[in-house]
Each structure stands twice: as structure tokens, then as C-alpha cells.
From TrEMBL:
All copies of domain Nucleoplasmin-like, residue ranges: 3-95
InterPro entries associated with the record: NPL
Compositionally biased residues, Low complexity: 133-144, 218-230
Record-linked Pfam families: NPL
Region of interest (Disordered), residue spans: 96-177, 216-259
Protein name: Nucleoplasmin-like domain-containing protein
Top-rank lineage group of the source organism: Eukaryota
Length: 259
């Protein structure tokens, strides 16, 4: 999985890869400070055989960014464009193919080369092969002399003690059992590296690795159109205007919430 980003303008831009999926997760107005307050910019998309669909509508100083969940499958294309004065930056990631086949081929080649190597016998074995008659005679004498001792040492095994404490089974870590059992969540307080098929985030079960559930068969614009419709931009702006006003912080610092 690798980071991916692009900048969109009024001229339509076509995106798509032959060997990997592209997942778009974020969109925002580029250089919104250079635009006048209240400027409206819209992001539109169109797949092959369909018409233009509005994915997001932005307004400077009010709603300048939004999360997205658009998947452009490998081998397919999606055309995007912007309407209004301004450009839009989109970002996400690419899902690259796994290298399991390459690694398995390397392991099999190493095992074959190891089998072809001739293993030389230890010095003791070469000595026995050099004197087979003497070795056989010594082995027969050793067996004959050890038989009485072995018979004398035979002792009836003791009966098992039912009250004996059984060894405790060591506990299994939650992360390991979840990963082996195929669960959809692996608890982890911090990011410890990429895991195939999982995404690190904070969700309903806490912070950790969540299984990256593939989207429905309707991908691209069809998947975006299937999402529930949001309320109008004007209604949304009225409800969140107070939340996004400039606020005073420590040391005279001013800030506002754009999430």
C-alpha cells in the first residue's frame, strides 16, 4: 500500500491503474486563502457509460474539505473535474499486489539447491566403514555384556498420580489469536507496520488494525452514488457555522475547526 494524490482543475482528468486499485479518501480546496469568502467549488466524477455526478461541494471559510471513499479498481478508469473558481486536491492510497508468489519461488529454489549439495559423512562414520568386520565384532560383544545389566535395571513404572498438578498452558496474546483466527480487528496502541489486508485506525473497538473490507461490486461513481445523500450545503453551513468560527486559544493564538 502506497500514498497517492492528485490535483484537479476545470479540465477533466482521468485516473486509473492497470495493476493496482486506487482508493480516494480525502478532498479539499487548494490554496483556499487566495479565494474570496463564500466561493463555491464542486467536485464532479464520471465513469464510462454514465453522466457527471457531484461528489462534493466546498465553500471557502465554511466547508473546505471532506472525507471520501471512492475505489477505482485495477484496469478501470474514472474521470474527475472541478467547477467554480479554484482547484481541488484529492488524496488516498494504492493497493499493490502481494509478493507471496515471488517469495515462495525463492524458498523452493533454495531447498532444491540444498538437496543437490553432497553431505560428507562425519569422521567417525568413515572409520566404521573402513573396518566393517572389527566394528561388527565389537558391537556383538557390547550387546551381550549389556543384556544382564538391562534386565536388572528394568523397573515397573509407577502408576500416574491423579492429584498431580497439570502444567499450565501459557496464555495466548490477544493480537496473535485474533490474527490467526481471521478476526476483523487486532488491538494495537500504536502503528507497528503495514499488515496485509488491514488498516490502522481508531474505530468502534478502539485503536488498532481493522480488516480492510473491500467495497461492494458497484465501484467508482456507482459506489459513490450508492452512499446516503447528505443535506444541502446551505443547511449544513447554517448548523456548523458556530462550530467553525474563529476561537481564541492560549497565548493569543486564534484557530477554527474545519473537520
Amino acid at each position: 500500500m502506497s500514498f497517492w494524490a492528485a490535483t484537479l482543475h476545470e479540465k477533466p482528468t482521468t485516473i486509473g491503474e492497470d495493476e493496482c486499485d486506487i482508493v480516494i479518501t480525502q478532498a479539499c480546496i487548494q490554496n483556499s486563502g487566495a479565494l474570496s469568502a463564500g466561493t463555491v467549488v464542486s467536485l464532479l466524477a464520471m465513469s464510462e457509460g454514465s453522466s457527471w455526478v457531484t461528489l462534493a461541494r466546498f465553500r471557502t471559510t465554511e466547508s473546505e474539505s471532506t472525507p471520501l471513499r471512492i475505489v477505482v479498481a485495477a484496469g478501470s478508469e474514472l474521470t474527475l473535474k472541478v467547477t467554480g473558481k479554484g482547484a481541488v486536491d484529492i488524496a488516498g492510497y494504492q493497493i499493490l499486489p502481494e509478493d507471496d508468489e515471488v517469495e515462495s519461488e525463492g524458498v523452493s529454489m533454495d531447498s532444491e539447491s540444498a538437496d543437490e549439495e553432497e553431505v560428507s559423512p562425519p569422521p567417525g562414520k568413515r572409520k566404521l566403514e573402513a573396518h566393517p568386520e572389527a566394528t561388527a565384532g565389537k558391537a556383538a560383544k557390547a550387546d551381550a555384556s549389556s543384556q544382564p545389566n538391562q534386565a536388572a535395571k528394568q523397573v515397573k513404572p509407577a502408576a500416574p498420580n491423579p492429584t498431580a498438578q497439570q502444567p499450565k498452558t501459557p496464555p495466548v496474546k490477544a493480537g496473535a489469536s485474533a490474527e490467526v483466527g481471521g478476526a476483523d480487528f487486532i488491538a494495537s496502541p500504536k502503528f507497528t507496520g503495514s499488515r496485509a489486508g488491514f488498516v490502522f485506525k481508531k474505530g468502534a473497538k478502539g485503536v488498532g488494525y481493522y480488516r480492510d473490507t473491500p467495497p461492494s461490486p458497484a465501484k467508482g461513481v456507482a459506489a459513490a452514488a450508492a452512499q446516503p445523500k447528505k443535506q444541502s450545503a446551505d443547511g449544513w453551513a447554517k448548523e456548523t457555522l458556530a462550530q467553525r468560527e474563529w476561537k481564541a486559544g492560549p497565548g493569543g493564538l486564534r484557530f477554527r475547526d474545519l473537520t
